[in-house]
Each structure stands twice: as C-alpha cells, then as structure tokens.
Amino acid sequence: MSYNLLKGKRGIIFGALDENSIAWKTAERVHEEGGTFVLTNAPIAMRMGSINKLAEKTGSKIIPADATSVEDLEKLVAGAVEELGGKLDFVLHSIGMSINVRKGRHYTDQNYDWTQKGTDVSAMSFHKTMQVLYKHDAMNEWGSIVALTYMAAQRVFPDYNDMADNKAYLESIARSFGYFFGRDKKVRVNTISQSPTPTTAGQGVKGFDGFIAYAEKMSPLGNATAQECADYTITLFSDLTKKVTLQNLFHDGGFSNMGVSNEVMEAFVNEQK
Ligand SMILES: NC(=O)c1ccc[n+]([C@@H]2O[C@H](COP(=O)([O-])OP(=O)(O)OC[C@H]3O[C@@H](n4cnc5c(N)ncnc54)[C@H](O)[C@@H]3O)[C@@H](O)[C@H]2O)c1
Predict the structure, then answer these.
(1) Is 232 a catalytic residue?
(2) Where are the active-site residues found (predicted)?
(3) How far is it, in rounded angstroms, from Cα 113 to Cα 92?
(4) Least crowded by CB within 10 Å, which of 30, 105, 153, 194?
(5) What is the pLDDT of residues 240-251, one digit of tens each?
(6) Is 201 in the pocket of ligand 1 (CB under 6 A)?
(7) How many domains is the chain built from?
C-alpha cells in the first residue's frame, strides 16, 4: 500500500546490491511513496550489474562511490543535488563489510589491516558521508539520515566478530553527529537495529542459519524481514517522525527485550531428555 509519504522528497540510497538487500527493498518503497533518489554503491559492486534493474524500475540515476573515499562522496553528493534538482531530504546508509568475517578469521586472531578496512567501510563511512553532507549544506531542514545496525553492538554474538565493534562505533557516530546535525541544520540522525536478515552480508556471518532460527523463536512477533525494514525506514524519512533523533531503534519483533521465550525453553528442555 502507498501513502504518498515521501512525495517531493529527494535522497541518496547506499547499498543496494541485489534483490535481497535491505537498501533494494527500501528503494522500491521510497519510489512507491513518491520519493526520488540517486542510487549508489561501491564501483566493484556495480560490476555485478543488478543495480541497473533497480535504477530502471525506480527511474533513478546511479552514481558509483566507494563510501570510504571522501572524494567519491563529494562527487556523489554534488551529483545527487544536481540530478534531483535541489537539496536532499533523506539518506540511507546500508553498508557493512568485514574481511575478518569473510575470510573466517576468528575474533581472537584478527588481521588488523582487515579490521581497519572493515571499520572504515562499516562505520567511519557513515561519519564521512555526514561530514560531506554537513559541510556542503546538502540536507534540507527536517531531513532524515538513517543507518542500519545490529544488536551485537550491545550484546555478545560471538560469530559476528569485529562487525560488533563496527556497529557500536556506527551507533555512536549517529548520536555524536546527530547532535550537530540537529542543532545546526534541523536534520535527524538515527540507526535501525534490524533482525538477522537473509542477504549477502547477513549470510556471510558464520552460523547464520542457527542465528536467524534462534532469533525467530525468541521474538514474540518473529524476525522482521527486509521488506518490513523498508516499511519502517520510510516512516523515518517521512514528516511523521520529525522529532525522533539520536536514537538506536530496534526493529526486531521484540527480540532485544526478551530474556527467554517458551519456544526456546522447550527446545532446550527437549534436548536434555
Ligand atoms: N542482513 C542482516 O542480518 C542485517 C541485520 C542487521 C543489520 N544489517 C545491516 O544492514 C545493512 C545492509 O546490509 P544487507 O543485509 O542489506 O546486505 P547487502 O550485502 O545486500 O548490503 C551491504 C552493502 O554494502 C555495500 N558496500 C560494501 N563496501 C562498500 C563500500 N566500500 N562503499 C559502498 N558500499 C559498500 C555492498 O556493496 C552492499 O551493497 C548493513 O549495514 C548490515 O550490517 C544487516
């Protein structure tokens, strides 16, 4: 269903890799709600080609940018403002990557060059993006910036590896930069802490199948899907949430406030028999 929530709003959407990506679903929903945007991803991800389909479907231009490069981000922001015909109302940061995770390197045996690269891609890129937007005064008043995160920033999930630290850093950047963006430009900055979701990034985490099944059984409403995350995100881009800022918002079917569920208890008790 469409509510015209984003009619006339302009933005940038980072991180649509394929149809499973949270950013992909969000781009489709923003389009349905009347928003216009530029799609962006790392040049290397572009080569896989499927983002072109999304661009066609939503009538969007693609501007490649490595989110760790301030130079690329400056070109992206200037290009988006020009292409869309004015300052921006929303930005989605939907980017994550850990080489330690990808190469199966244990948390207690990090390759720190990889750790640094992962931090730059997954967290510092959010600061860089906001700094470019802020310095170039590229956001309209009452605009909204959202990044995606995971609860491993607060609680231990052993196989999430260094991504847990990257997410803690990302959430802190949202608060710290969000203060200045709010005070100086009336722009809000939030993170959405999403359930485990079967995407390329999600499935890269060791033991993902167990992880997602456990979360499903623990959450009174079940896991939130990528589609539901897109629905939630458009509310944060809309004018209906103007005073929500500096928040880490759990979108997880209730998982984050659970101790144990009956279903998980039953599975455990059955195992003991
Ligand atoms: N899938 C999950 O279980 C889950 C749960 C909570 C939060 N998240 C977060 O959601 C966000 C989106 O991930 P997803 O699950 O849709 O997976 P995804 O793999 O579809 O998206 C990750 C994106 O990051 C992009 N990226 C990587 N390096 C980049 C760089 N240098 N510059 C620009 N883009 C770069 C990739 O090309 C890809 O499009 C991530 O922040 C992820 O951590 C995912």
Answers:
(1) no
(2) 150, 160
(3) 27
(4) 105
(5) 999 999 999 999
(6) yes
(7) 1
Residue 3 in domain = no
Residue 89: pLDDT over 70: yes
123 in ligand 1 pocket by Cβ < 6 Å? no
34 three-state secondary structure: coil
CA dihedral 139, 142, 147, 151 (to 10 degrees): 160
Structural element, H or E, at residue 59: none
Structural domain boundaries, residue 37? 10-272
**CA pair distance 211, 204, nearest whole angstrom:** 12
Cα(65) to centroid of ligand 1, in Å? 14
Which residues are CB-contacts of 215 (< 8 A; sequence separation ≥ 6)?
A: 195, 196, 223, 252, 253, 255
Q: What is the pLDDT of residue 206?
A: 85
Residue 181 forms part of a structural domain: yes
C-alpha angle with apex 7: 94 to 18, nearest 5 degrees? 30
Q: What is the pTM for the complete model shown?
A: 0.98
For residue 120, being part of any structural domain is answered with yes
Check if the beta carbon of residue 146 is closer than 8 Å to that of residue 192: yes
Q: Tell me, in angstroms, the distance from the centre of ligand 1 to residue 16's CA.
A: 8
Q: How far apart are the first and last CA of the chain?
A: 48
Q: Indicate if the pLDDT at residue 49 is higher than 80.
A: no
Sheet of 139-149: strand order equals: 61-62, 36-40, 10-14, 88-93, 139-149, 188-194, 248-251
In a domain, 117, yes or no: yes
Most ligand 1 atoms within 8 A of CB, residue of 19, 26, 97, 227 to mutate: 97
